[in-house]
Design brief:
- The protein is of the alpha+beta class.
- The chain has a domain at 4-202: Ribosomal Protein S5, domain 2.
- The protein has eleven helices and twelve strands.
- The chain has helices at 4-18, 94-104, 132-148, 154-169, 176-183, 225-243, 257-263, 269-294, 297-315, 320-330, 358-373; strands at residues 24-35, 45-61, 66-71, 76-81, 116-122, 188-193, 198-203, 209-214, 335-340, 348-353, 378-382, 389-390.
- The strands form two sheets. Strands 1, 2, 3, 4, 5, 6, 7 and 12 form an eight-stranded mixed sheet that branches.
- Helix 2 packs across helix 4, helix 3 (132-148) packs across helix 5 (176-183) and helix 10 (320-330) packs across helix 11 (358-373).
- The mean pLDDT is 96.
- Bound molecules: alpha-D-galactopyranose.
- Alpha-D-galactopyranose is lined by residues 33, 37-38, 40-41, 173-174, 176-177, 342-343.
């Protein structure tokens, strides 16, 4: 079992706290985003992978309608009744779980009839842009749907987690994080189409790996920057729908780079800059799929560098720290490509690397980052791993 030490700690803490072993335990991994940034809510394409770190959720049924939820790291407990499930202003970690519970029952969790006692524990670094919150939602939805005997598909479960983010956590995210956590497979990338919600896996050879480099720059998607980028994309899509008469445009997915060049004039400068990022990312993912099929890692990696430049210059969701990591990576021959991963504004970079050179790469990036910022980034080799499952 992956991350067995976390599972063992959770089960033993659960027993201490609630006096018996859990009925059900589920596991869900975090994710890295490899190519296709801010494309999910524009109904575009992404390459991502589930990672080898994740979160476990352990749960047992209550005798009555009461619920108890404990954060296994802090050992703080939130208590509520199934008739009173609402976003919390304190101990806000509970919102990912309670929001998921709420939407598993279509917003009427009293329909569950009985409550539960749950606890979660994981090893995904927080604030790293590795989707610890989606992992928590996905292990929650798996465990609770099993507990209550509610049948849901993987995509439906992913959407329940996304709704929890929107309504309980306050982040208007796309479906990428939840879908990657659900559909990941060992040694594979997840190739997603967020218009059709088709998710397929593409196997990667053993000669490549990913390295995540966590900057120490803050990453918080609920503070408005993410929402403002999404809004700008939606406004731009409306503009293109107006000017591209005769073509059905509902999202930036429908707009080509050539159309952006020709028709960007009517958009204000900032919105034009925001719009070109997901448009270019979609093209890069399509191109990248062909390159991966041919095993051309160098060319695929070059697209990752292009993606980062697009974030840096157009979408402006990078920061000095992430730029420094990518610039350092570019000088290392054993790194094929590097870019920021996820929402941006801090968090981590994702590097496609030759794993036999991992120590050298980590040492060189750490040295250069430290010379600039005084502290050290965290470099970890990531193995694409199996998606969410019951334990
Ligand atoms: C965050 C969001 C995702 C996606 C990425 C950017 O991780 O939660 O839905 O938009 O940012 O690609």
């Amino acid at each position: 079992m992956q991350n067995k030490e976390v599972y063992d700690e959770l089960v033993s803490k659960f027993e201490q706290k609630y006096g018996k072993k859990p009925d059900i335990v589920a596991y869900a991994p975090g994710r890295i985003e490899v190519l296709g940034n801010h494309t999910d809510y524009n109904e575009g394409y992404v390459f991502s992978a589930a990672i080898d770190k994740g979160t476990f959720f352990a749960v047992s049924a209550s005798e009555d309608t009461s619920c108890e939820l404990t954060a296994g790291d802090l050992m703080e407990t939130a208590k509520f009744d199934i008739s009173n499930v609402a976003p919390a202003k304190e101990m806000t970690w509970q919102n990912y779980v309670t929001g998921t519970f709420n939407w598993l029952f279509d917003g009427a969790p009293a329909k569950a009839l009985k409550g539960w006692k749950g606890m979660f524990l994981g090893n995904i670094p927080l604030g790293a842009g590795l989707s610890s919150s989606a992992a928590l939602e996905m292990c929650t939805v798996l465990a609770l749907s099993k507990l209550y005997g509610v049948e849901k598909t993987k995509t439906e479960m992913a959407k329940i987690g996304q709704k929890a983010e929107h309504t309980f956590a306050g982040c208007p995210c796309g479906l990428l994080d939840q879908a990657s956590s659900m559909y990941g497979e060992e040694g594979s990338l997840v190739q997603s189409d967020f218009r059709t919600n088709e998710f397929k896996t593409v196997s990667m050879g053993p000669s490549v790996a990913f390295m995540m480099v966590k900057s120490n720059a803050k990453h918080a998607l609920v503070d408005g920057a993410y929402a403002s980028r999404r809004q700008a994309c939606e406004d731009a899509a409306k503009h293109f729908a107006d000017v591209l008469r005769g073509k059905k445009v509902t999202h930036l997915r429908d707009v080509t780079m050539a159309e952006w060049v020709l028709y960007r004039g009517g958009l204000d400068e900032t919105k034009a800059k925001r719009a070109v990022h997901p448009i270019g990312e979609d093209e890069r993912v399509v191109q990248g799929a062909g390159l991966l099929a041919k095993g051309d890692l160098a060319a695929f990696g070059a697209l990752m560098y292009d993606s980062h430049e697009s974030s840096r210059n157009w979408f402006e969701n990078s920061c000095e720290e992430l730029d420094a990591i990518v610039d350092a990576a570019k000088a290392i021959p054993e790194v094929y490509g590097a870019r920021l991963s996820g929402g941006g504004f801090g968090g981590s970079c994702c590097l496609l690397v030759d794993p036999s050179a991992a120590d050298k790469i980590a040492a060189q990036i750490t040295r250069e980052y430290k010379a600039k910022f005084g502290d050290e980034p965290i470099c970890s080799l990531i193995k694409p791993s199996k998606g969410a499952h019951l334990v």
